[in-house]
Amino acid sequence: MTMTMKPEPATGTPIANSLTAGRLPAPVPWIILGTAIAVSFAVFGVMALAAGTGLNWGGALLVGAILYIPSIWLFSMLVEGRRRAMDRLVTALVTGAFVIAMIPLVSLTITVITFGLNRFDLDFFSMSMRNVTGEGGGALHAIVGTLLMTGTAALISIPIGLMTSIYLVEYGRGRLARGITFLVDVMTGIPSIVAGLFAYALFAIFWGPGTRTGIAGAVALSVLMIPVVVRSSEEMLRLVPNELREAAYALGVPKWLTIVKVVLPTSIAGITTGIMISIARVIGETAPLLIAAGFTASMNYNLFDGRMSSLPVFVYTQYANQGNPAEAYLDRAWAAALTLILIVMLLNLIARVVAKAFAPKFGR
């Protein structure tokens, strides 16, 4: 039997391959970035000296980053070829977009922490604003109101939203399901102030005009929460493989028990995340609570009697109605904003723990 041997390439002859062509050393992109920023700072420094003004640090960094993008593409094109040059160009653009998106978030966080710590003391969390016109006082009444109204809104929205999503995924067919989906999409785009007006008008029918209560604020928040819960839960339920449902049906498990024991535990992590997103969506709303729940400087634990304050409305009123000294009002506003951020962060941490605890365990 004759075997045909593939001839080996001549020794020392390079194999041309665009995927394994020359590559820039690892430090080169950082060197290019540093050089671009240095050039930008030099130009901005000369301009600042000529104009007699201070150096624009933000502008210099931004221009340096912009100079880096064509520079890395050009160097990569010369050394690595067109394919890798395009990869580095897209990587630089995506990284730049991420950094730009993070700048306002980091700036906001630093600003809120810096100014909020001025009044982040025991009095702020143990006192209300009753009979306080200048320095002192606290936001205990607003914290209690926020927790009560947001918690009540969650109790209203989560069952309705979750059951609606279960119906749409597991049972809904035909015109009714399409109609519900359309209405949910419409509710998603409702302005928050419209939800507040709806809740105010609803309770004004039964208790008369001018009625502002905590339960009205909770209903306004639930109108905003329900579509978010429905949409997020629906997407999570659709991600559950049909094979899991069919395996349960093959064992004779009823459909309702399959949903409870198989579908919901499998998607509980995503559903919990969607619920927390909906809570974070409404906990900082000001307009609907200002209309439906109003504002008060005193403690109120009764959702069905009297006006009830909240942290967003407290921040608004402290900033909009500054007294003497103005710094005291601004400090309370910043401290309330920091408290609101911490509450949202705490709720997200709790949601992660709950999702991890109730998520299905995949083991042998």
Automatic annotation (TrEMBL):
Q: Which InterPro entries match?
A: MetI-like, MetI-like_sf, Phosphate_PstA, Phosphate_transprt_permease
Tell me which residues make up the ABC transmembrane type-1 domain: 143-351
* Gene Ontology biological process terms from the UniProt entry: phosphate ion transmembrane transport
User: What Pfam families has UniProt attached to this entry?
Assistant: BPD_transp_1 (PF00528)
| Domain of life of the organism encoding this protein | Bacteria
Any one of the GO CC terms: plasma membrane
Question: Subcellular localization, per the record?
Answer: Cell membrane
CDD domains reported for this sequence: TM_PBP2 (cd06261)
Transmembrane regions: 30-51, 57-78, 90-118, 138-168, 180-207, 213-230, 286-304, 333-355
Which regions form coiled coils? none
Q: Which UniProt keywords apply?
A: Cell membrane, Membrane, Phosphate transport, Transmembrane, Transmembrane helix, Transport
Q: How does it sit in the membrane?
A: Multi-pass membrane protein
Q: What is an example of a GO molecular function annotated in this UniProt entry? A: phosphate transmembrane transporter activity
> Gene3D superfamilies, per this entry?
MetI-like
Q: What's this protein's family per the entry?
A: Belongs to the binding-protein-dependent transport system permease family. CysTW subfamily.
Which purpose does this protein serve, as stated in its record? Answer: Part of the binding-protein-dependent transport system for phosphate; probably responsible for the translocation of the substrate across the membrane.
UniProt protein name:
Phosphate transport system permease protein PstA
Taxon lineage: Bacteria, Bacillati, Actinomycetota, Actinomycetes, Micrococcales
| Gene expressing this chain | pstA
